[in-house]
């Protein structure tokens, strides 16, 4: 029984030009209550891996470079 | 990260606190202050810096009993009446007597409370009878301030560990807990002389109307794990049929927020812009009127601010868009809603368990003790009704201090190694399957069924059908659920908590054959309040592996409530409009 990959547009957006995860920063990943952010092996930048967002904003508020933006999930918008 | 690894470690402590949101940090802090030589561990599924209901802070205290504005007697009476008389007054009175000292301590931590021109606390009236609302101008700093204190007291913090079951000794006393790392699936056995459960509400029980699993009123991390753990350890849970249902901004599911905007002159209206309730304080009776208006031709319901001066609205926005749920401003902006121009559409939340706003919780006494020796509970998951954030802090402090003393007088209880092996097998079973049903589908289905079958108005035949459907989902969860990484493993464990809470919600609701607490427990086939049969708590617990319920008398009141005062909260509807 295969498991499908259903696409969703994610609410948390990371500006890769500003993100300094490739220099060792993990602040947004550390503070997310639902633990949905990860650092990409491919780009070295933070991204939203799991679509399980409470749009609570610690990731955006605590980011040292202002790279993270939390949007309202599309289903609620 | 997220790869499933083998691992089992064991640590020993005096006091283990499970949950690092609001009550938990205060419990750990006070346990350590009471006994600085004690080993105190604070276990948190997320990160204590930004976890729980107040991850982004809080705009104010909803239930501050400040000398000069209110007395513990007044507050105890108000909560007893708001809770339809089913109230253990001892823990409420204890809270009311201790909370001012906690406000002063939080003030020392650097969390400022609003003062008037005389330098006194600037308490506002929102409740039906007394004045208890105190704004917090720098409420966004709460978590940081708490974290500093925890570091200073050398509390041992373990982030990203989810407790899955409590361990008990051969006499049923507490022996510790089993936890699993949410990023590696490695196990940790925590042996403890006392355990304090502070795992928050069961906020992922019902499904929000949007259908988005994470669009809940409560922080979606609060999936009822504490309720489930207490249940499996044999603790009694009180009045679970008294659901939490709140009036919220439609779709956004954040508080609308009568406590903040109310004191500035905002109020709840119907679509004609007219008031229909006397008092915006959240009670089951108020929610019943809110529900009635929503269903009527005068629905939907709105929060009205557009009659206020633009500067006043600016002040309200400064609070609402900065703390607790700051993305609210973005939500309104997307829809082009300006508080100055139009009223804000409201709706009712999904159901949940949360004594912070209603009364459903693990049964505790005035020392936060549960019915299991050595096990304490505080905050949204303990049975002290309407206790909000300040209740979590105050009862957390009470729990921490008592647990530290208790731990000083007992030996570490031994536990059965077989219990750990069985728990490891239960937790890891979905990781051993090649394919099957993923946790998110099991969760969606469970919560959709909660809405279909348990949401008030409650109907007996419907709730029985719900129970049968939950049993089917449980079979699927136990036999076909598949998990592919450690993150998904955490979600699968949360599904188990959610399903346990759904079963408890149905069982408790069927047990109490009357209606009480307004909408929270409105049973269509038993529409009347029945004080002769049901002026009592209902206590649910696991006995010999089965769910049971029994009546438990309400302890004699410490603060008497006169006959003619008892119905104050029943008269919520505006008279000329009734």
Topology:
The complex is a heterodimer of chains A (77) and B (578).
Chain A: E1 12-14, H1 27-31, E2 37-39, E3 46-48, H2 58-62, E4 68-70
Antiparallel strand pairs in A: 1-4, 2-3
Chain B: E1 8-18, H1 23-34, E2 40-43, E3 60-61, H2 72-82, H3 89-109, E4 134-135, H4 142-152, E5 156-158, E6 161-168, E7 174-181, E8 187-197, H5 225-232, E9 237-238, E10 247-249, H6 258-261, E11 267-269, H7 284-295, E12 301-304, H8 310-320, H9 328-335, E13 344-348, E14 361-362, E15 375-377, H10 388-408, H11 417-428, H12 439-454, H13 460-480, H14 486-511, H15 531-534, E16 536-543, E17 546-553
Parallel strand pairs in B: 1-2, 1-8, 2-5, 8-15
Antiparallel strand pairs in B: 3-4, 6-7, 7-8, 9-14, 9-16, 10-13, 11-12, 12-13, 16-17
Summary?
The complex is a heterodimer of chains A (77) and B (578). By secondary structure, chain A is an alpha+beta fold. Chain A has helices spanning 27-31, 58-62, and strands at 12-14, 37-39, 46-48, 68-70.
Word description of this protein:
The complex is a heterodimer of chains A (77) and B (578). Chain A is of the alpha+beta class and 77 residues long. Chain A has one domain: 2-Layer Sandwich (Alpha-Beta Plaits), CATH 3.30.70. In chain A, 13% of the residues lie in helices and 16% in strands. Chain A is built from two helices and four strands, in the order βαββαβ. Chain A has helices at residues 27-31, 58-62, and strands spanning 12-14, 37-39, 46-48, 68-70. In chain A, the strands form two sheets. Chain A has a two-stranded antiparallel sheet. Chain A has a two-stranded antiparallel sheet with strand order 2-3. In chain A, strand 2 and strand 3 (46-48) form a beta hairpin. The longest helix of chain A has 5 residues, at 27-31. The N and C termini of chain A lie far apart (34 Å). By secondary structure, chain B is an alpha+beta fold. Chain B folds into three domains: 8-59 and 138-242 and 352-417, 3-Layer(bba) Sandwich (FAD/NAD(P)-binding domain), CATH 3.50.50.60; 247-348, Flavocytochrome C3, Chain A, domain 1 (Alpha-Beta Complex), CATH 3.90.700.10; 423-553, Methane Monooxygenase Hydroxylase, Chain G, domain 1. Chain B is 34% helix and 15% strand. Chain B has 15 helices and 17 strands. In chain B, the strands form four sheets. In chain B, strands 1, 2, 5, 6, 7, 8 and 15 form a seven-stranded mixed sheet that branches. In chain B, helix 1 runs parallel beside helix 4 (142-152) and helix 12 runs parallel beside helix 14 (486-511). The A-B interface holds A 1-3, 30-35, 38, 50, 52-58, 61-62, 70-73, 75-77 and B 1-2, 46-47, 49-52, 55-56, 160, 182-183, 210-216, 219-221, 251-253, 325-327, 330-331, 334-335, 435-436, 438, 482, 487, 490-491.
